[in-house]
Amino acid sequence: MTLSTGQQSDQQEADAGPWWTTVLRYDLPASLVVFLVAVPLSLGIALASGAPIVAGLIAAVVGGIVAGAAGGSPLQVSGPAAGLTVVMAETINQFGWAVTCAITVAAGLLQVLFGLSRVARAALAISPAIVHGMLAGIGITIVLGQLHVILGGDSNSSAIDNILQLPGQLLDLHGPAAFLGLLTLGILLVWGKLPAAVRKVPAPLAAIVLVTVLAVVTGASAERVDLPSSVLDIRFAPELPGGGWADFAVAVLTIALIASIESLLSAVAVDKMHTGKRGNFDRELIGQGLGNMTSGALGGLPITGVIVRSSTNVATGARTRASAILHGVWVLLFTALLATVIESIPLAALAGLLVHVGAKLVNTAHIREVLRHGDLSLYVVTVAGVVLIDLLSGVLLGVGLSVLLVLHRTMWSAVHSEGEGDTRRVVIEGALTFLSVPRLSAVLNGLPERSTVTLELVVDYLDHAAFDCLHTWQEAHERSGGRVIVDEVGHPWFARGKDGSPIVRKDRAGAAVPRWLAPWSEWMARDGADEEELPQVQIPDQRHAPLRRGTSEFQTRTAPLVRDTMSRLAAGQQPHTLFITCADARIVPNVITTSGPGDMFTVRNVGNLVPPHEQHSGDGAAVWSSVEFAVGVLGVSEIVVCGHSSCGAMRALLDGVPEGLTGLAGWLGHGEAGLERSRTARSVRLDGAEPAHAGDAVALHNVLQQLDHLRESPLVRSALERGELTLTGMYLDVGNAQVYLLDPAADNFEPAGVRGAAQAR
């Protein structure tokens, strides 16, 4: 849910005015709507938990006032939550109500400690599939239990018992109670389809009020809510157990964790619903803890952040935490002044409300999301555990399965063999650990004896067990007359293990330059080295033929990745840039511009020269024909002239061309204008300073001179005047791998990615 432009304007207007005007205009109306939603839900949750009915109202009051004031999520509304009903029912059944209140107090204290230790965000590491599965399991359990109450019977503590006894309950309907419960459920189902004016009344409130009025008018003989004679006479003082402290501690930890996770997830969801101040999760845990300590001490249920109330709070226009606090005040006043109204509500009506709430916890959108992420097994296991065993067991089963899935996904390698006959290629990808050894051993031992095997390792970690498996197999295969060529892509895990200096921690592995970028000599072979001196990561047969190995690498690894892109480009090219640069082997235009196929029309020559336009039909024809094709036919929007440091052409201009290279001398004659410019014009700076080397200073002036030559062309000049073309000067400091862009107003090349640079015009 997001706010519209009008809502954002209202919020900005509210934030600008006095605080009390915001409260009166936005928070007061919102608090009344949230209050109307909270009362029936609080009563229903207390009923489903097996707690005294008034405990739900106490929790609603405390959740609004205490958690609302002390929490860190301004628009979150807290109170008794459906997500804890199963746990509370089991806890009350095991310990009794007074000890359960003490458990709630202790759980609140633990939540405060969680908040003070700043671990709130760590709770969000639990997989959403487990959280959604937990909520769905709770919803199914609530539905199975409350269906019995709707039908006029009693709910069982076991979901399995509820399932087994449901057919008998259907055959023995308790007339009035069943009618009221089903009517409540029917109203809730159709309320969202009624006209908008009617839907302004919250569906839970409407259903409970209508069914209660009908029950009172008809005098239906259905069991009603039972409140103490004086709801303000609180007698639920918490008591410590006489023994069983281990079970007591487990219950405290369970309630604290579930309440914390549910509150934090609700706070995250609420943050996504509005554009105001973001929540402080650690403070929210402290607020929830203080609320639970207070609620337990007064005889109330545990509280959590509740997404139903919170979303209602945001949707009705709340701006500050005053709305949550006021909603708690309204619940208190309603309970104190209108207790007789509450006692008129049929229990079957509250059960119908809970069945509706429980069914909504099984969210089909969540199931689709979990399925898309491949975590359906986590969801199903968690749901089954919660329904068939208990909530804590279900969550633990989900967490355990998630750990196994993480191990499988992050530490299980892909191992496959390619080829036929005596030439095979085995590709191993991923983290190669002991978990992969059985699969790895099966593939390796299935290779023919005396075969030539290229072992291609594309691994980001190699543990001792996997190394030992590879090393032992290689020795055995070579002893039997076979040949093994080890080709490690990336960090040399296997080679380091063989030379006695293995890397045992992933974070200590050196970052390997990708093969598509690194010079072939860095990843394939040292030219001229003896066969015995070559490390295992190299390819001896191809160390003198780098392009053969490079094309093989392209077809094996790169081609599958770019094939779709190349297919789209097959019909024609539409580059955005004409890139003119030096033929120097160290300059890789697509790397320094982060571009790919189809992006740039490239011209390379010694010295990145553009001859004067009057020479466009001489030896400058190659350059000028490319310029005319790029501008006149391809319609590029930018021309870049890129020079670089340590340029051999610039040194030749300064020191002279070696004898006998007449062709080179003739070509570099086009660079004399740039050389003369460096001697007569004002200096061109590199990041505010003049270059230390004379050749680099000439290279900077040379870029400016070539841009001037481009402007001599009528075609280029016309495109510039129409605003359809931009000229850009660029310079690469090879040693520092730093790109600079020209600011023409200051004759200064500025570092790219630091302050940016204006484009030449």
From TrEMBL:
**Protein's membrane topology:** Multi-pass membrane protein
Lyase as a keyword of this entry, yes or no, is yes
Record's keyword terms, sorted? Lyase, Membrane, Transmembrane, Transmembrane helix, Zinc
Where is the chain membrane-spanning?
A: 28-47, 54-75, 95-117, 129-153, 173-191, 203-222, 248-270, 329-356, 376-407
- Pfam families, A to Z: Pro_CA, Sulfate_transp
Q: What is its EC number?
A: 4.2.1.1
Gene3D superfamilies hit by this protein:
Carbonic anhydrase
Indicate the segments forming the SLC26A/SulP transporter domain, all copies. 24-381
UniProt catalytic activity: hydrogencarbonate + H(+) = CO2 + H2O
Tell me where in or outside the cell this protein is found: Membrane
PANTHER family hit by this protein: SULFATE TRANSPORTER
Name the family: Belongs to the beta-class carbonic anhydrase family.
Annotated function: Catalyzes the reversible hydration of carbon dioxide to form bicarbonate.
Name of the protein described by the UniProt record: carbonic anhydrase
**What's the source species for this entry?**
Prauserella alba
